[in-house]
Amino acid sequence: KLQHEIDTGNILLQDRLPIGEDETAGEVHDRMMLLGAQLLVKTIEGLEKGLLKETPQTELLQANGSAAIIKHAPKIFTETCQVDFSKTTAEVHNQIRGLSPFPGAFTHLGGKMLKIYRSKKETATHALQPGSFETDGKSYLRFATADGFVYAMEVQMEGKKRMQVEDFLRGFRIENVDGA
Questions:
Q1: CA–CA separation, 67 vs 7, rounded Å?
Q2: pLDDT of residue 64
Q3: CA atoms of 66 and 172, how far apart (whole Å)
Q4: How far, in Å, CA of 173 to CA of 110, rounded?
Q5: This prediction's pTM
């Protein structure tokens, strides 16, 4: 229920939604939309029948073992979207998932922006500089991270359409990239 401050109202009903290890924010959004619609119907029915009891958000947080501090999500800036490959593989993979499809995580390749919409991760020991990439020119494009590699699976080069990495690599020329 609404209160004066943003997102501080009492909870009438809630549900949980597991998030897959490779699921993007867009995919979670779409599943939450369906779950939210179902929960809204249950809430209206419960209100109509007088069956619902309000619970302060802080009580729910404490009951779940969390601190009773309600935090707002931070604003997303351009810097937030630029991939920092010096982070761990899991952090980079989660950044890509969390920003897909919009606004999209990005890096630079050959002086152009490359958005990465889908990735997979591989933890591995290597001697490569974080951010450097490797490709066979046909099936994979992977970027070194602090503790492994992030494989770009779905990408969009600046001025081009979004595509699977195999399609992107058919037109991508390594000699166009400085330092590769």
A1: 16
A2: 67
A3: 47
A4: 9
A5: 0.87
Q: Is 151 exposed, middle or buried (0-12, 13-18, 19+ CB in 10 A)?
A: buried
For the chain, report the end-to-end CA distance as a whole number of angstroms. 55
- Residue 92 and residue 81: Cα distance in Å, rounded? 11
For residues 32 and 16, give the distance between their C-alpha atoms in angstroms, rounded to a whole number. 9
Return mean pLDDT, the chain: 91
Q: Which tokens hold the place of 12? A: 């009438």
CA-CA distance, 142 to 140, in Å (whole number)?
6
Nearest CA-CA partner of 13 in 72, 37, 69: 37
Return the bridge partners of 110, or none: none
Q: Phi and psi of 80, rounded to 5°?
A: -65, -30
107: region left, alpha or beta (phi > 0 left; psi from -120 to 50 alpha): beta
Only one residue has tokens 């401050």, namely 5
Contacts of 82 (CB under 8 A, 6+ apart): 105, 106, 107
pLDDT in tens, 99-124: 999 999 999 998 999 999 999 999 99
- Alpha-carbon distance of 83 to 108, in angstroms, equals 9
Secondary structure class of 103 (helix, strand, coil): coil
Would you say residue 63 has pLDDT above 80? no
Q: Reply yes or no on whether the pLDDT at 56 is more than 90.
A: no
Residue 7 binned pLDDT confidence (cut-offs 50, 70, 90): confident
